[in-house]
Amino acid sequence: MNVMLHLGLGSFHRAHQAVYLHELIKTGDTAWSLAGGNTRPDMAETIDALEAQGGAYTLETISPAGEHRYERITSIRKVIPWSADLSGLIEQGANLATRIISFTVTEAGYYLDANNKLDLATFADLRADVEAAKAARPGPTIYATLTAILRERMRRGSGPVTLLNCDNLRHNGDRSRSGLLQFIEMIGDADLLAWVQANTTSPNAMVDRITPRPTSDVRERVKAATGVDDPAALMGESFIQWVIEDKFIAGRPAWEKVGVEMVTSVDAYEEAKIRLLNATHSCIAWAGTLVGYTYIHEGTHDASIRQLAYDYVTNDTIPVLDTPEAPCPINLPQYRDVVLDRFGNPAIRDTNQRVAMDGFSKIPGFIAPTIRQRMARGESIDSVAMLPALFLAYLQRWHAGQIAYTYQDQAMDPAVAHAMCDAPDPVAAFCADKPLWGEMAGDARLVNAVRRACERVAQFVQAHKLAG
């Protein structure tokens, strides 16, 4: 049997990629199975539960209309316990049967700057893993883990393997591959570099399914509905989508039989998802937090927040994604409306805390491209400027210790963020930050638009205080 090894057995993988393979196995196609484990010692209870259950778990899906469905997912046939030397992952990844190595590590876990270069200056854990890899030791970053696996695969002569990125990173296959090759160059392993270039491919892919962090409520509902007490149960929305470039060097499952879109280019799907869904999601999370909401659906049903999101997409984003010279194959207004309906699903109970995280990678990745294109065309950025203005207001709350939950941001240097907020002109300091804005940093058009947007954000917050 062919094996797909997945690095990162979090909720998203188990509600998305594992589900597609499960559906394929249900058709009678048993040529592939999943093995998986984590590169860090997190989710210990969930991993233990999955191991005890033979990799099986229950997935609850809930539609916007409130329909609940429950299914036992059984495509993960091997759960690899974490160990500091990553020996289980290396052994499985180097096995001849493993033909695909896939991974979900979140956007910030790729340590890439605006020029797609590994940012060693900012990330101590990446620097540590470079040194570890030079000494032939594994490490927890995605590059160090893949390097350790691929070194052993090369040593054994186990043949080609596809590296499949399943994160919300624009051009995710190209960019994670670039990061990996840079990492291997940094450690000075010329033989491995040549082997990886010749024996791996890295398809770009677009993934989509809202999957909140599981709560005890999910386990209770699963037990009530199915009679199974499942510590690894999780929940996701009913919507699911996966679009992948068909560039697999060592074979792949027949995913097209179960709804995966196998294409020559994911560009249009990727841009629509990143800008209309991911950026809008963050907009609602930042705005909702500022006015005291806990959940995404609460902000989506707030007329003023929904309008902010709608205007961002309609006024500034759709016009640059669908043009006469480059028409978009996707009905973007329809996609926008479906996204907002999905976000408004009260049963999902997705938290602002989860969606608001990693703003320092989301601004350059999700939001800055629209600003850049609008300014290049000499057009207004007033609607899109509301998103960085919301994030700056959110950051100022964090700076003052007034966020009701812990803010997590792998790409943020806390000292830099605090300095922005302490600056005599926080808007100017924020808009001058090169990692956030690249070549647009300090542009007067950006500064002025964000300044105007900050005034509107302050009015929005004040209006909610008065209404409350």
Number of helices: 20
Percentage of residues in DSSP E strands: 5-15%
The backbone outline, from C-alpha atoms, is globular
How many E-type strands? 12
- Give unreliable regions as ranges: none
* CA gyration radius, whole angstroms: 22 Å
The mean pLDDT is 96
Describe this structure in words.
The protein is an alpha/beta fold and 468 residues long. It contains 20 helices and twelve strands. It has helices spanning 11-15, 17-26, 44-52, 87-93, 124-134, 142-156, 172-186, 190-199, 216-226, 267-290, 296-300, 303-321, 332-343, 352-356, 359-376, 386-399, 414-422, 426-431, 434-437, 444-467; strands at residues 2-7, 32-37, 57-62, 68-73, 76-80, 98-103, 161-165, 200-201, 205-208, 234-237, 241-245, 261-263. The strands form three sheets. The protein has a six-stranded parallel β-sheet. The protein has a three-stranded mixed β-sheet with strand order 4-3-10, sandwiched between helices. β3 (57-62) and β4 (68-73) form a beta hairpin. The longest helix is centred in the middle third of the chain and has 24 residues, at 267-290.
Q: Which characteristics define this entry?
A:
alpha/beta; 20 helices; 12% strand; 468 residues; single chain; six-stranded parallel β-sheet
Map the helices and strands.
Layout: E1 2-7, H1 11-15, H2 17-26, E2 32-37, H3 44-52, E3 57-62, E4 68-73, E5 76-80, H4 87-93, E6 98-103, H5 124-134, H6 142-156, E7 161-165, H7 172-186, H8 190-199, E8 200-201, E9 205-208, H9 216-226, E10 234-237, E11 241-245, E12 261-263, H10 267-290, H11 296-300, H12 303-321, H13 332-343, H14 352-356, H15 359-376, H16 386-399, H17 414-422, H18 426-431, H19 434-437, H20 444-467
Parallel strand pairs: 1-2, 1-6, 2-5, 3-10, 6-7, 7-8, 11-12
Antiparallel strand pairs: 3-4, 9-11
Helix pairs in contact: 4-6, 5-6, 6-7, 10-12, 10-13, 10-15, 10-16, 12-13, 16-20
